[in-house]
Specification:
Keywords: Adaptive immunity, Cell adhesion, Cell membrane, Cell projection, Disulfide bond, Glycoprotein, Immunity, Immunoglobulin domain, Membrane, Repeat, Transmembrane, Transmembrane helix. This protein is mainly beta. The C terminus is likely disordered.
Length: 556
């Protein structure tokens, strides 16, 4: 490379400078020398090499002490290049008749350190010109230039908005430059996440180069321009009993820490942090809520609806009524939205609402009126009616001769609630019959049944008694020899009598005949004691047909 037509050597600061002597070695060479020229043009000799004695001598020049090396081909090397080595050096070859000289220009380059942004502002403020920071690039040669960037774009000076001031200092001992560029900047709200950086552009041996700093993001303060109120709730809807939190926020940076909350029915705002909590809200909390900054500016509004559900069941609890009475039942709903109503009786869903113009025993049970707001999670109410239908005992007696012709079934059909206790007796003697079988008590009804084989006509009494009343009914039953079917019963009862245990029935008949013979022998005595004898016959008949118990069990 040439500088002003002269040969130039480019060297990196700290490296070795190598300068070949660009003269052809002449015949008769006596010695070669290197010198450099002072700024005023006067020479300073630094190295000498004899061609005959091959010895090398270095002049006592402090700047080059122990740094020089002159080779046999008269190439001069200077170790640890310095800025002060940037001179015009001259190679001289001397013969007896002539002195040849060839100059070389040395240029030294030093890459600066990576620039860094120091003295950074803690934060920037809109509408205020403030020192953002200083970009510093150290130890450069030649001096470099600093450029500022925002989001990768060059920042150009703008009066009162972008103010850049560049300063350059040189280290007198090394000759290296340090560049410092300060940036004053007035940000906008959009600069909140902007990346600021700087670069240094410098000249190297191969041309111009650039080194970038690491980017920096600054906290930009800007005032609140809008406030927002919102409801914090675990559910999308609010119901009575919920806790409700109102949150107010401002879009400034830093955000406001205190606000005024305006509650329905309150004329003055309530000063609070950014949240306001209402516990166990009631329906009267429904309304318009507002919040504003402390100075009452920039207000926002929201509406809260507190959903509710009331259920009134009339009557409710435990209710006791008499059979045949009327009972109006009403389930009244009051709610913030349309509610669904469901009736349940004894764990079974009812298709219609209950209505009782004449109560029957089957109407008794546990009734539940349940209502739900479908759109509001967890809002459900229910109330219970326990209906008791009472009635005095009602009795109907029936009789029939069983298909085997050897016994008769007498049935006492009973209605009433509470369940009546039933007792069978023989009219006249008052003897109690304890062999009765009862059917299941359902809807206030059941039956008590006895099986007998009377040898003579007999009158049986069925007594049913509960807490309300005692009812007595009697029925005349003919002797076993006279068939009776005055009240046909369920065919299942007939079929049950077809289960045979003939041996015991025959024994019963034989015993009956023997008793008849005995009666014939003592006719007068029987006439006097007729009722007792009849009782005795019935009791023995009941004892003789014990098998009927098993028959009934098999049937049921």
């Amino acid at each position: 490379p040439l500088a002003l037509g002269l040969y130039t050597v480019n060297a990196i600061y700290g490296d070795t400078i190598t300068m070949p002597c660009r003269l052809e070695v002449p015949d008769g060479l006596m010695f070669g020398k290197w010198k450099y020229e002072m700024p005023n043009g006067s020479p300073v000799f630094i190295a000498f090499r004899s061609s005959t004695k091959k010895n090398v001598q270095y002049d006592d020049v402090p700047d080059y002490k122990n740094r020089l090396n002159l080779s046999e081909n008269y190439t001069l090397s200077i170790r640890n290049a310095r800025i002060s080595d940037e001179k015009r050096f001259v190679c001289m070859l001397v013969t007896e008749d002539d002195v040849s000289e060839e100059p070389t220009i040395v240029k030294v380059f030093k890459q600066p350190s990576q620039p860094e942004i120091l003295h950074q502002a803690d934060f920037l403020e809109t509408e205020k010109l403030k020192m953002l920071g200083e970009c510093i690039a150290r130890d450069s040669y030649p001096e470099g230039n600093i450029t500022w960037y925002k989001n990768g774009r060059v920042l150009q000076p703008v009066e009162e908005v972008v103010v850049i001031n560049l300063q350059k200092t040189v280290d007198k001992s090394t000759g290296l430059f340090t560049m410092t560029s300060s940036l004053q900047y007035m940000p906008t709200k959009e600069d909140a996440n902007a990346k600021f950086a700087c670069s240094v552009t410098y000249l190297g041996p191969s041309g111009q180069k650039t080194i970038q700093s690491d980017p920096v993001v600054f906290n930009v303060h800007y005032p609140t321009e809008k406030v927002t109120i919102r409801v914090l709730s675990q559910s999308s809807t609010i119901k009575e009993g919920d806790n409700v939190t109102l949150e107010c926020s401002g879009n400034g940076n830093p955000p406001p820490q205190e606000f005024l909350f305006y509650i329905p029915g309150e004329t003055e705002g309530i000063r609070s942090s950014d949240t306001y909590v209402m516990a166990d809200v009631r329906r009267n909390a429904t309304g318009e809520y507002k919040c504003s900054l402390i100075d009452k500016s920039m207000m926002d509004t929201t509406t809260i609806t507190v959903h509710y559900l009331d259920l009134q069941l009339t009557p409710s609890g435990e209710v006791t009524k008499q059979i045949g009475e009327a009972l109006p039942v009403s389930c009244t709903i009051s709610s913030s939205r349309n509610a669904t109503v469901l009736w349940i009786k004894d764990n079974t869903r009812m298709q219609t609402s209950p209505s009782f113009s004449s109560l029957q025993y089957q109407d008794a049970g546990n009734y539940i009126c349940e209502t739900t707001l479908q759109e509001v999670e967890g809002l459900k109410k229910r109330k219970t009616l326990k209906l008791i239908v009472e009635g005095k005992p009602q009795i109907k007696m029936t009789k029939k001769t069983n298909t085997n012709k050897m016994s008769k079934t007498i049935v006492c059909h009973v209605e009433g609630f509470p369940k009546p206790a039933v007792q069978w007796t023989v009219t006249g003697s008052g003897s109690i019959i304890n062999k009765a079988k009862e059917t299941k008590y359902v809807n206030g009804k059941f039956s008590s049944k006895i099986v007998i084989a009377p040898e003579e006509n007999v009158t049986l009494t069925c007594t049913a008694e509960n807490q309300l009343e005692r009812t007595v009914t009697s029925l005349n039953v003919s002797a076993i020899s006279i068939p009776e079917y005055d009240e046909p019963e369920d065919r299942n009862d007939d079929n049950s009598e077809k289960v045979n245990d003939q041996a015991k029935l025959i024994v019963g008949i034989v015993v009956g005949l023997l008793l008849v013979a005995l009666v014939a022998g003592v006719v007068y005595w029987l006439y006097v004691k007729k009722s007792k004898t009849a009782s005795k016959h019935v009791d023995k008949d009941l004892g003789n047909i014990e098998e009927n118990k098993k028959l009934e069990e098999n049937n049921h």
